């Protein structure tokens, strides 16, 4: 078992990342790429990449770590940190809750049965409400992009136009969620503008290295892994990581917490960002999804990595 006195060696991490990747490859061929957004259905389901970045500044990459993909729901974490920074936790959580739903990410049911406000910022309704709050309080979508440039150290932040258009054309369920919330007074102002920004956000391009970088920033309570500069409020980071534990992996967050035990957030583009507190950040990409919407090979890869390095949050420090 790992302890603070015997930190993981570089060789141990390298071997663990390789073993995790090998484990993940056994699951390629299972699951399905998202097809409810037509442009996503064109992804190659055989891709898998893992990038691990550590506190000591090392970066380990295996497989398709440089293939760009759309963030989809992973961007909800970035939107939340932006909203917390701009507006503060009190205003954000007056709009969206902090409870898991047990429903699929695009479900409308709890908006009717559990009060008007979306239960958390990582379901579609919650992210749309967060985007609406950010825009209606005077931020432009371009401000969010500038924030991402600084956070990810990548400029410019680009969007996949094809995926954006495809989702905008077919996103009737998200449109329904938004108008439902408008009729209940949760959304204000221009709903179409909010939806447009939401669809654009989902189509932001990244790769596994970007996600590992962001994961490590959260693992370091908001410090930029490259510069050491404090980019995010440590309290905001702890809020976000807690929500990643309880709501980050759709309606299999509980099972994932038991098996993997790392704060994580997935997206239907096949990305997963994960971290081990004070240790490392992980970015994974593999577009074939399980029935809940999580990258299937990606989650298996993370499970193996967690076991190999004893990363579960309730293990490893004794
Ligand atoms: N753009 C997707 C949607 O709104 C994001 C879903 C996801 O990644 O969970 O349906």
Please name the CATH topology of the largest domain: Beta-lactamase
Using the 3D structure, state the CATH architecture of the largest domain.
Answer: 3-Layer(aba) Sandwich
C-alpha Rg, in Å?
18 Å
N-end to C-end Cα span: 8 Å
Strand content: 5-15%
User: Which geometry do the CA atoms define?
Assistant: globular
Helix content: 40-55%
Mean pLDDT: 93
Please, how many helices? 13
Q: What low-confidence regions span 5 or more consecutive residues with pLDDT below 50?
A: 1-5
Tell me the number of strands. 7
Walkthrough of the structure:
- The structure is a single chain.
- The chain is of the alpha+beta class.
- It folds into two domains: 10-69 and 206-309, Beta-lactamase (3-Layer(aba) Sandwich), CATH 3.40.710.10; 72-202, Beta-lactamase (3-Layer(aba) Sandwich).
- 47% of the residues lie in helices and 9% in strands.
- The chain is built from 13 helices and seven strands.
- The strands form two sheets. A five-stranded antiparallel β-sheet has the order 2-1-7-6-5. A two-stranded antiparallel ribbon has the order 3-4.
- A hairpin with a 4-residue loop joins strand 5 (264-266) and strand 6.
- Helix 1 (10-25) runs antiparallel to helix 13 (296-309), helix 2 packs across helix 3 (89-95) and helix 2 runs parallel beside helix 5 (124-136).
- The longest helix is centred in the N-terminal third of the chain and has 16 residues, at 10-25.
- The radius of gyration is 18 Å and the shape is globular.
- Residues 72-73, 105-106, 124, 167, 174, 202, 267-268, 293 line the site of glutamic acid.
């Amino acid at each position: 078992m790992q302890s603070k006195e015997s930190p993981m060696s570089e060789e141990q991490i390298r071997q663990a990342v390789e073993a995790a990747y090998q484990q993940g490859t056994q699951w390629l061929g299972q699951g399905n790429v998202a097809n409810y957004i037509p442009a996503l259905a064109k992804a190659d389901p055989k891709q898998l990449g893992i990038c691990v970045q550590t506190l000591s500044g090392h970066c380990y990459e295996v497989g398709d770590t440089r293939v760009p993909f759309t963030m989809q729901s992973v961007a909800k974490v970035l939107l939340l940190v932006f909203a917390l920074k701009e507006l503060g936790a009190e205003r954000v959580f007056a709009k969206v809750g902090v409870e898991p739903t047990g429903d699929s990410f695009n479900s409308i049911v709890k908006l009717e049965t559990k009060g008007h406000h979306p239960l958390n910022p990582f379901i579609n309704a919650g992210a749309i409400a967060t985007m609406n709050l950010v825009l209606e309080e005077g931020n432009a979508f371009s401000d969010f992009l500038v924030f991402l440039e600084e956070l990810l150290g990548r400029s410019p932040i680009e969007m996949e136009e094809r995926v954006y258009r495809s989702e905008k054309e077919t996103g009737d369920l998200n449109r329904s969620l938004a108008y439902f919330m408008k009729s209940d007074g949760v959304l204000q102002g221009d709903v179409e503008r909010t939806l447009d920004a939401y669809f654009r956000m989902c189509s932001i391009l990244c790769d596994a290295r970007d996600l590992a970088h962001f994961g490590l920033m959260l693992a370091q309570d908001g410090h930029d892994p490259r510069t050491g500069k404090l980019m995010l409020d440590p309290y905001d980071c702890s809020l976000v990581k807690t929500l990643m534990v309880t709501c980050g992996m759709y309606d299999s967050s509980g099972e994932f917490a038991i098996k993997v035990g790392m704060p994580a957030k997935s997206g239907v583009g096949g990305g997963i960002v994960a971290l081990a507190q004070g240790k490392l950040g992980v970015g994974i990409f593999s577009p074939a999804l399980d029935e809940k919407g999580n990258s299937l090979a990606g989650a298996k890869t993370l499970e193996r990595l967690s076991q190999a390095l004893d990363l579960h949050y309730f293990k490893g420090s004794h």
